[in-house]
Every structure is written in C-alpha cells, then in structure tokens.
Amino acid sequence: MKIVSVVGARPNFVKIAPLLAEMRKHPDLSSCLVNTGQHYDANMADQFFQELQIPRPDVSLEVGSGSHAYQTAEVMRRLEPILERVRPDAVVVVGDVNSTLAAALTAVKLGIRVAHVEAGLRSFDRSMPEELNRLLTDAISDYLFLTEEGARQNLLREGIAEDKIFFVGNVMIDSLEGHRSLWERSRILTQFGLPSGAYGVVTLHRPSNVDDPSALGSLLGALSEVARQLPVVFPCHPRTRTRIAQLNGSLSGLELRGDRADTTGLHCVDPLGYLDFMALVASARIVFTDSGGLQEETAVLGVPCLTLRDNTERPVTVTHGTNRVVGTSPARIVQEAMRVLHTPAPASSRPPLWDGNASVRIVAILRDRLLRRPRTHDTPRATAPAVPLTPTTNAFNDWPSSARHHQDLTGDSERSHT
Fold first, then answer.
1. Per-residue pLDDT reduced to its tens digit, 285-323
2. Tens digit of pLDDT for each residue in 14-68?
C-alpha cells in the first residue's frame, strides 16, 4: 500500500511524527512524506524534524507565506502532479491548516481516498479560517479519525456516514508521551533561571489576537498585570514580536536571562523547539494560549490553562482537563489568573484514549480498510502539466520500495533537503 502524508506547519509536524513511526513498522506500507512549506522558517522546521525524529521529506513544495487563497492554490497546483505520478492508495492529512484542506481537495479530485486525523472538532465560529478548513476537509474525507467522542456528533449532524468515523485518541499526545524522556532532560529551566512551578507561559498567534493593535495591547496589558505576581515567558514568533514593537516599543528588547529569574515581568523570548517548549510548559504554574494543541497538552500534563478566546474546538480539555475558556477581556483574564494562582490546582482526568496509542489505532484501521477495499483510481488519466517544483519531486518517476523510502531518492542529499 502506498500512503502519502502531507504536512505544512509546525503543529502538523508534531501530529505526523508518531504516524510515520508507526507506518515504518509495517512492511506492507510504503510511506511518502510531503512538506508543503506553509511554515517557511527553514531553521524552525528543521529543528522540529530533528527533535521529533521525522524522516527527511520525500517532497518539498516550498509554498511559503501568502494569503489563504494563495497558499491553498499553490499547494494544490504543486501537489497534483506528485499524486498523479505516485497514485497512492490514500492521502493522510492532519489538523486544520491551509495545507490540510488543499491536500484533501487535490486528492479527492483525483479519486484518491483521504484520511483526516483530528476530524470533527468544531469551534462553531466561521470567522476562524481553521474552522472552514475543518468543515471542508471533513466533508470530503473517507476516513475521519477523532480525538474526542464529542466530535462524532458534530460529524453526524453534518451528514457524515457513521462508517467513516473512528474514535482513536490524540496523536499530539502520542508525541508528547513518546518524547517524554527527551523533553524531561531539557535544560531550558536552568538556561532561563526559572524555578519549577513558579512561572507562567504564554503563546499567541491567532490573527484576531495579534494583528489588531488594540486587541494585542489589551492582552499584553492583562498579561503584564499577571506578571507582577510571577515571571511570564512569551516564546514569540518574529511576526508577533514586530507587532509588539509597534505598540510604542513598550515590550521591545525584553529578554529572559538567568540573572532575572527572581524578578517578575513579561519576557519575550525567541521561539523554542518542541523539546524545550514542552519542558517549559510541563513545569509551568499557569499557561495562557490561543492555540488548540497547547490546550490538549496542558490537559494531559495537569497544568492550568487559560484559553484566550471566546470558544474552543476542543471541549474535552475543559470537561476532563485543566482548561478554562476565558475570552479576551483583560479584567476576566486577570481575575481567572489570580484564581489559579491562589487556589490549589484542580483535579483533572486524562481524556479517553489519550494514552499514546492513537497512531497504532489509525494505522491498523487504514491497513484493514485499504487492504479489503479495491483501489478506485487506477484508470489512466491525462498527465498534469509540469510545474516548477523543488528537485526532490523529480524522484517519483517510480515509487520507492519500503526498504528505501527514507533515503534521498535523488542521490543528492542537499537537493532533497527541506
């Protein structure tokens, strides 16, 4: 069986890593990894691939930044000839970024089955681009793998057939648990001079929070108020740092150093790799975020999390975990943070099937379904017009055997590098 897995952004890397590791255990699976390059920071992407032990992508599309329409269209334009040439039995997409929807659309129009990992999650807020990506990807997928049982009802209400839906658990937690021994050895707390359990962590990336100067200023004001009680560390994307610097330079130039460990304040630091970041989160007293994945990770780690949004597509992190959705009102954020800091940590239970084995279940289901269902897309098709791609993509004149699918198929290691 041939399976193409498509990733494009850092959250995708965390989700795909355990799936690829599980696929490599089965000689009857031949796996290809396509990186669309939606997150175009090569250094950060390379670091995630190394730390998560993800094999070098077989194909790099190098789409880069741009509008939603541009990214979606470019992924489709560049991915189509690859899928035409390879003719996989299935395309696996994860999460809810533009690359997820673009790859699913490209595959289904070619008659290739689509498996969506992390399906059925809904914020019910269609102003979020991710919500539209989730809705559309689920509507055209053949296999929908759920992280929480509540997602099943969302899909059934939307008319998805029951036999397409599989509750399997959470691949984000597979990565968290699978790499625990590595991130527990991180020296990030020593490097930053932080005492365990006596600091906060914040991440912000949603356009509604960081692109509007008024909204960003209000959030930073609330976080600065909390930071009078304990240090708050803000791993900050360069784009967000630029937005912060534009706010009268009020927070520009602040870095967390070891000699400031005993002081309070909101400290902007450079983005961290996966292992250092998970070590930082695991020992935090409180986390503030607008990220879906971090809501899940804190739920398992038992770290109190305040979600700085008016909704969440991951309600199980509230019902079973430590997450509270508090919105973006500065007064509410400060109030909820003080409640966390001055009361014992709430009891939480790990959500069902978040046991580190979601990838095992997903691959078992794919092998079962693909082996007993004939391929429907083997009829000859017109060759897609050639498009300028990276040299790596020229390697797929013939599909590699399972014994060499990790290797550099061009014979030139530098040319196939992301």
1. 999 999 999 999 999 999 999 999 999 999 999 999 999
2. 999 999 999 999 999 999 999 998 765 666 678 888 999 999 999 999 898 889 9
In the set 205, 237, 320, 417, the catalytic residue is 205
Lookup: tokens for 182: 């590595």
Is 205 part of the annotated catalytic residue set?
yes
Q: How far apart are CA 1 and CA 276, in angstroms?
A: 36
How far is it, in rounded angstroms, from Cα 295 to Cα 201?
A: 12
Number of other residues whose CB lies within 10 A of the CB of residue 307: 24
Cα–Cα distance measured from residue 369 to residue 24, given in angstroms and rounded to the nearest whole number: 18
Whether the CB-CB separation of 280 and 196 falls below 8 Å is answered with no
pTM: 0.86
Tokens representing 378 are 């083997």
CB 246 within 8 A of CB 264: no
- Are 2-169+354-397 and 181-341 in the same CATH fold? yes
pLDDT of residue 412: 31
Residue 318: strand, helix, or coil: helix
Alpha carbons 213 and 386: distance in angstroms, whole number:
43
Residues with Cβ within 8 Å of 80's Cβ and at least 6 positions away in sequence, in order, are 106, 110, 384
Nearest to 169 by CA among 314, 352, 294, 319: 352
Tell me which H or E stretch contains 153: helix 150-157
Instruction: Give the pLDDT confidence of 190-239 residue by residue, as tens digits.
Output: 999 999 999 999 999 888 899 898 999 999 999 999 999 999 999 987 77
The predicted pLDDT at position 46 comes to 80
Superfamily of domain 2-169+354-397: Glycogen Phosphorylase B; (3.40.50.2000)
Residue-range domain boundaries for the chain:
2-169+354-397, 181-341
Between CA 1 and CA 370 the distance in angstroms is 8
Look at residue 374 in the predicted model and tell me its pLDDT: 57
Taking each continuous run of H as one helix and of E as one strand, the counts in the chain are 17, 13
Q: pLDDT at position 57, please?
A: 93
CATH classification (class only), 181-341: alpha beta
What residues are paired with 287 via a beta bridge? 201, 305
Structure tokens at 228: 């009078």
* Beta-carbon contacts of residue 351 (< 8 Å; ≥ 6 apart): 148, 170, 299, 300, 316, 317, 320, 321
Angle at 184 between CA 182 and CA 188, to 5 degrees: 100
